[in-house]
Amino acid sequence: MKNQEVQKQIVSSSFGAKMLVVLGAGESGVGTALLGKQKGYKVFVSDRGKIGKKYKDILLNNEIEFEEFTHTERIILAADVVMKSPGIPETVPLVLKLKANGISVISEIEFAAKYTSATIVGITGSNGKTTTTMLVHRILKDAGLNVGLAGNIGVSFAQQVAEVSHENYVVELSSFQLDGIEKFSSHIAILTNITPDHLDRYEYDFEKYVASKFRITQNQKESDYLIYDADDIAINTWLKQHKIKAKLVPFSLKKELAYGAFLKGNNIIININKETIKMPISTITVKGKHNVKNTMAATMAAQLLQIRKEAIKESLANFEGVEHRLENVAKVKGVEYINDSKATNVNATFYALECMDRQTVWIVGGVDKGNDYNDLLPLVREKVKAIVCLGVDNQKIKDMFGNVVDIVVETAGAEEAVKVAHKLAEDGDAVLLSPACASFDLFENYEDRGRQFKSAVRNL
Q1: How far apart are the C-alpha atoms of 211 and 215, rounded to whole Å?
Q2: Is 445 assigned a ligand-binding role in the annotation?
Q3: Rounded to whole angstroms, how far apart are CA atoms 1 and 288?
Q4: Closest Cα to residue 67, out of 85, 87, 43?
Q5: 293 assigned binding-site residue
Q6: CATH top-level class of 3-106
Q7: Is 127 assigned to a binding site?
Q8: 128 carries a ligand binding annotation
């Protein structure tokens, strides 16, 4: 349908119905379109790129107007409200024009939340949010709660609100999604950590990124909870400078806490709800210090929702981890191949290298988001025997580690990177894909990167 025809149809039918424009026809966009139509909005979906067949079929089957390969401004600027895909920056001219015209530009999370009275556990952080989200969801589901998994993971939050009446949601929230909220709130908010990431979207100003993460608590009430990492400098600094209404629930690996979760010897101790839980670290299936923290956060969220400690322990013991996060792929000729493609920033890669207990061939690189690699230098000196670069522009990596590691090789794809790593690794070594960068130079996304890596390993 031509743009003029689309505009005419929308304008003629918009009397008496508010108009919702959805920018971006991916998972969150199409889910929002479905919910918007159900709630009586006149919906128009606009994507500057090609709309995938799966999503186009949904729009056609539900008779939702859409366009692809363009944004028709006259139609979009007629909106009452605009839901913007998280991938579209706040600074693009169209978004700035919408805001200048007084049109509300929100995220899927904001739009969907007003149509559900479910209890929400919202989880954000630079790293660990996917694992923590899946842990919380697993515990609640195992305990028999009616619970949905949404946000950056699984089926669109908006689509679930439209089609399923969950009583609880566990929602993974990126800073981009939080930038688009106005009234959204979680009964329980979890802030796993804050380290530099996505600085290219925040004018290379870390403080702006920190403020974005703390939007998760801006609408919380005194009856709500904020679970947070008490060892995190950025979090502690912000909390000293700002007052929040929610009850603070800290966790720590470094200090004993009268209220919250902490590490004592080889045991996790949790003191909330007048009930103490003691769990040996050895019973946690996902390894690494960062996963001890993720476990603490998830356990406290479950306790606050009145889940029995026996049920929590059982779920934790059976949790198998997240695809593309320190995922053991295969052992080939004595070499362990590990897929950590989800490590799209330096801090995530720090955790991965910290977990390595053998000499490592490290596959790194991609789209740099303002990375500072200095924190990795001690771990690289200690554990990395060779670096395989996987990106279009690897100069920053070569400059940082060229004098630390004897072998640095550039490759142009996952298959070549795996073959080179295979030649460099010896019996007893590990090959670790932990890119510390976004994937969009050579891959569709980090999942595509991880799956290509796994396929290449299995073809060795």
Answers
A1: 7
A2: no
A3: 54
A4: 43
A5: no
A6: alpha beta
A7: yes
A8: yes
Residue 293 in contact with residue 251, Cβ under 8 Å? yes
Q: In what order do the strands lie in the sheet with 81-84?
A: 65-68, 42-47, 19-23, 81-84, 104-106
Mean of pLDDT values over 188-194: 97
Do residues 402 and 408 make contact, with C-beta atoms less than 8 angstroms apart? yes
Nearest CA-CA partner of 112 in 41, 176, 28:
28
C-alpha 189/C-alpha 229 separation (Å) is 12
5 pLDDT more than 70:
no
Report the run of H or E that residue 390 belongs to, with start and end: strand 384-390
**Domain boundaries along the sequence of the chain:** 3-106, 110-318, 327-458
Q: How many CA atoms lie within 13 A of 2 on its CB side?
A: 3
- Quote the tokens at residue 368: 């740099």
Task: Provide the 3-class DSSP secondary structure of residue 78.
Answer: coil
Ramachandran area for residue 162 (φ above 0: left; ψ -120 to 50: alpha; else beta): alpha
What are 434's two structure tokens? 């932990």
At 322 the pLDDT is: 80
- Residue 185: is it exposed, middle or buried by C-beta count within 10 angstroms (0-12/13-18/19+)? middle
Of 14-23, 76-85, 376-385, the range with the lowest mean pLDDT is 14-23
Residue 169, Cβ density class (10 Å: 0-12 exposed, 13-18 middle, ≥19 buried): buried
Q: Is 223 annotated as a binding residue?
A: no
Q: In the predicted model, what is the mean pLDDT of residues 287-314?
A: 93
Predicted confidence at residue 9, as pLDDT, reads 41
By C-alpha distance, which of 44, 166, 62, 52 is closest to 113?
166
Please, which residues have CB within 8 angstroms of residue 202's CB and are 6 or more apart in sequence? 175, 208, 209, 212
pTM of the full structure: 0.80
CB-based contact 269:277 (threshold 8 Å): yes
**Nearest residue to 364 via CA among 333, 334, 338:** 338
131 marked as part of a ligand binding site: yes
In CATH, the number for domain 110-318 is: 3.40.1190.10
- C-alpha torsion sign, points 107, 108, 111, 114: negative
Angle formed at CA 319 by CA 315 and CA 324, multiple of 5 degrees: 155
Instruction: Please indicate if the annotation marks 42 as binding a ligand.
Output: no
CATH superfamily of 327-458: Mur ligase, C-terminal domain (3.90.190.20)
